[in-house]
Amino acid sequence: MKEDGVKIIKTTTWSPGPGCHGGCGILVHVKDDKVIKVEGDPDHPWNQGRLCSRCLSMTQYMYHKDRLRKPLKRIGERGQGKFEEISWDEAFDLIEQKMKKIREDHGPESVIFHQGTGRDIGGWISMLAYAYGSPNWMFGLSGISCYTPRLMMMSITQGDFAVVDASQWHEKRYDDPEYKIPETVTIWGQNLPATCPDGFFGHWYIDLMKRGTEVLVIDPRCTWIASRAKLWLQLRPGTDAALALGFIHVMIKEDLINMAFVERWTNSPFLVRTDQEKKRLLRESDLIKNGLDTNFIAHDPVSDSFVVWDSDHQTYKKKNITPSMEGDFTLALADGSTATAKTVWTLYKENAEQYTPEAVSKITWVPADKIRKAARIYAKSQPSALHWGLPIDTIPSTVPTSQAINHLWCLTGNLDNPGGNAIARYAYDVVTYPYHSGGAILSLPPEVMDKRIGIHDYGAIKDFRAWAQPDKVLEQISSDDPYPIKGMWIQTANPIACTGMEPKKWRDAIKKLDFTVCVDLFMTPTAMLCDVILPAATFLEKDSLKAWWVPLQAIKRVVEVDDCKSDIEINLELCKRFMKDFPYDNTQELFDTLLKSAGITYQELTDNTWMIPPKGHPSKPYFRYEKGLLRQDKKPGFRTPSGKIELYSSWLEKWELEPLPYHEEPPYSPVSTPDLFADYPLILCTGRRMGPFFHSEHRQIPWLREQQRDPVLEIHPDTAEKYGIAHGEKVCVENWLGKITVKALVTPVIHPDIVMAEHGWWFPEKEGKEPNLFGVWDVNVNQLIPMGHEGKAGLGAPIKSMLCKVYKAKG
Amino acid sequence: MSKSNKNGMLIDYEYCTGCFSCTVACCQENGWEAPLSGMKVMEIVQDLPKDKAYLTFLPFPTELCVLCNHRTRQGLDPACVKHCMANCLTYGPLKELAGELEKKPRMVLWSPR
Hints:
The structure holds two protein chains of two kinds.
Chain A: E1 7-12, E2 25-31, E3 34-40, H1 53-56, H2 58-62, E4 72-74, E5 83-85, H3 88-106, E6 111-115, H4 122-132, E7 137-139, H5 148-158, E8 161-164, E9 184-188, H6 204-210, E10 214-218, H7 224-227, E11 231-233, H8 240-253, H9 259-265, E12 271-273, E13 280-281, H10 284-287, E14 296-300, E15 305-310, E16 315-316, E17 328-332, E18 338-343, H11 344-353, H12 357-364, H13 368-380, E19 384-388, H14 398-412, E20 421-424, H15 446-449, H16 459-463, H17 470-479, E21 487-491, H18 503-512, E22 515-520, E23 532-535, E24 544-546, E25 552-555, H19 567-578, H20 587-594, H21 602-608, E26 610-611, H22 624-627, H23 650-654, H24 674-679, E27 682-686, H25 702-705, E28 712-715, H26 717-722, E29 730-734, E30 739-746, E31 754-757, H27 776-779, E32 802-808
Parallel strand pairs in A: 6-7, 6-21, 9-10, 9-19, 10-11, 21-22, 22-23, 27-31, 28-30
Antiparallel strand pairs in A: 1-2, 2-3, 4-5, 4-23, 8-20, 12-13, 12-18, 14-15, 15-16, 17-18, 24-25, 25-26, 27-32, 28-31, 29-30, 29-32
Chain B: E1 7-12, H1 21-30, E2 39-48, E3 52-61, H2 69-72, H3 79-83, E4 89-93, H4 94-101, E5 107-110
Antiparallel strand pairs in B: 1-4, 1-5, 2-3
């Protein structure tokens, strides 16, 4: 306590509040039970005293006049904006009664539990969905196109996720003797200073640049970091896979592959059967009666015989062999027939052959010599780290695209090395919600999980993560097939302004349902359509914890604001009402259980505020694949079916997808839809970020809104001149799906054939009731983007590569 | 020479990313209501001859900047300097900071009112 009656409390951030995925350490100044100031904690290794504009605005956010402070019940028609305040008891009783009725009449699967981005919600909303009995927990972005596709691809390729090692696993950060400054960081599709929330902190790259790291940038826009890059590749949106395959082509041709790593740690020597229409990895069961189909086959050049890779024992069944990396083979199979086969590596090279820099240049618009130069810079730098962004998810071809890019660090051995791409796990293996399709805090029986929407359409949706597939959910709400959807619980999500493509379809879907609840901090276009609205607490008004990726952190309740309640407490109360014998009485018990793998209690975590796993822990780098720290059986290798990095993916093979990466045109592009392109001659990219806003949030916070009053469209000066558009003028952006009106931001940072729009805009200061809905229909660019264009794996959607025309708005 | 002229602010505009932490940190610290702030960030974008745009952000202490006197008296950095995400602001005696200008290009030294 300071003399002036100000208490300073140390805690860590996450949403709600700054909106982001948290990580920063802060010092909260409290006087008379009110937060008066938030400052960066200089002793926290994550942000080292710094803080972003959103967190610095917390006092305006928490005490905003428009903040929801009491539960609301709709009394008028949906969308009419007529609500009355009710008590929490009344709200819980009403929700319990309505949702139990739906459960009785239609089954628990007929309620969707709808979340937004990776806030402090996944654990608690899945807990509620499962306590209620519904398998339909969902993130509503078409194709789940936010990090999940990349996470899925990393998970099936090397069994774990990898992120750039910017020394975040070390308390001393850049000065830790084990750490190495990356020689180059390749920034693939992200405007770092304004964004970068995937368990990361964008300004670490500025720290690294000051310490000598060179930057290679791949982006359709000349971002701030692109303008400081050693080399910048301005690619056409949606052609990232072709570019990555171009890198791979150059690396193979110029001997820039780390062959020792590839031979030892990848499935490159395994044999793939080539004499049938569909290629297939050969299994022990193909060669030997009663052989296992989880074991694979390689060729021993010394004895010219075939050997079995034993996936369980992580060894070849014959001792001391060095398998052939390349070749064509003929084998006798167990059924008496013969087959021809090639090694994965031979096929891999054949696959890359077509992606010459010249061919890739035609696809991507990047000059061939720049592709060569960039591939050399990436492959020769030591260590070399690769940071990728959302554009890798927001394309229907996200699977082969993220696979090709993921391969870059596998082909160069920049995996779990200091200053490369380190394997990122939940700190101390504390899991609030897992990335597999099993249970979380609670589980549902298989016959119930079998009703999860989308799992019968897509293997990747079934086997990776537990979310329902949102495009299929929207379809099912309108079709009632195979069963009707009757209710929706919406928490940390604003599909009408942000996550929903074709948002009018989402509006109609929400309005069609019998009962909807929205949990949020402000009235939003989505909340306006719901039956009950619950006021959520910010991170400074709740207890929680965070474990992705490091450190393990405590989020502490510092103050209370009126009747606001934390998402966790709201859900916990309803869990008790929906589920007999719900195992947790309060958040403390729940947190203590979750923290068991760290060997501490929640009280101990809050005493420490944050903790970094010690050396030797499976959640701490480096080179864990050599030390047997990644697999459950403690053998060296990876958590994949074969234990190898699967360049040729057995999971993709299982899901009947192409096991090797390839380029696929976006569904709407100058190449795939030339007729449409004639009418809509500009590529529409979306998702331009401004640091002071997080997605659809913060437009009502004066200090933040001041930094940008209105939504803009970036347009190149030549293009603007061609269409007679002046800087700051209102322009219509239109295609066959819809139209918005925004301000022209004439700037050379964008390619002349591309325009860049912003997402998430609505106007909290304007009329909220329908049809206006805070002006969302005037400016929400998602109206120009379709639902139902998810990729072949059920993942990815054409969110950043549509077509449009732009013209001066009348009046 | 008045007392406040002895200290100033060194800006390393090579690394300023235009994140607005300085602008908002000043508002929070000094109670300015939008659009007022003691720090504003200018943006300069131009195409360089080799066909690449170059973005520069330049933080500027406005007429409202008092270099956080109440903080510096206690040995603390001004709020903007403390929170700068790119660590590109330095507070100190003008004479010392002027020496820094010789060590690295793309810097500017402000002496607020």
